[in-house]
Amino acid sequence: MIRVLLVDDQRLVRAGFRSILDGEDDISVVAEAADGREALQAAHDHHPDVVLMDIRMPVLDGLAATRHLLADPGVHTRVVILTTFDLDEDVYGALRAGASGFLVKDTEPEELIHAVRVVARGDALLAPSITRRLIAEFAARGTRPAPSPALDRLTDREREVLSLVAAGLSNDEIARELTLSPATAKTHVSRIMTKTGTRDRAQLVVLAYESGAVTPRWLTP
């Protein structure tokens, strides 16, 4: 059973999400919170596998709550950021803080259910189209890439796989692109995360672009 914590200052949003998720045999909403401070307490009390976290809330916003939550060694959960706009300026910050992905609030019910299952099993939720726009926005700020020593430990094949992860491809899509088995693609991704000290694909994407290891094709002259 996947245990979910809903965090949103709008009761109707929480009620809608609860009705969708509680209808699934393998998902249970174990608690709700109306702000980030309540979310931190609820996470300690109920030990959710996945937290659906609104980014705009009073008292303590979703970005700060995510940072606190994922920095706490006593909490073992994954966070999906909920936002009204898919290019919310704080979404990138949330990914850097360790969030496993994000969803826009008007997502379809089946996409919400899929997102919870994907994140619960340890994968990141990064739709390629949204990821490209998000990274493009970050790159357009003119931030100078900072080389990461961790990337020096990657093999040529692992760098190739990293570039495809950064483009938002799934393991199956990477396997088809490189003519590998899905199991081999998954192994490459796991080894890359181990070598770079990243917790999931979302942080891999952030690392790839911030280090300059991958340059967005749409920004290349």
UniProtKB/TrEMBL annotation:
Taxonomic superkingdom: Bacteria
For the biological process aspect of GO, one term held by this record is:
phosphorelay signal transduction system
Which Gene3D superfamilies does this UniProt record tie to the protein?
3.40.50.2300
Query: Which SMART domains does the annotation name?
Result: HTH_LUXR, REC
Q: What is this protein called?
A: LuxR family transcriptional regulator
Q: Which UniProt keywords apply?
A: DNA-binding, Phosphoprotein, Transcription, Transcription regulation
Q: A Pfam family this protein belongs to?
A: GerE
* Cross-referenced SUPFAM superfamilies: C-terminal effector domain of the bipartite response regulators, CheY-like
The Response regulatory domain covers 3-120
Which residues are in the HTH luxR-type domain? 147-212
Q: Does the keyword Amino-acid biosynthesis apply?
A: no
CDD domains this protein is in?
LuxR_C_like, REC_NarL-like
> Which one of the record's GO molecular function terms can you name?
DNA binding
What residues bear 4-aspartylphosphate in this entry? Answer: D54
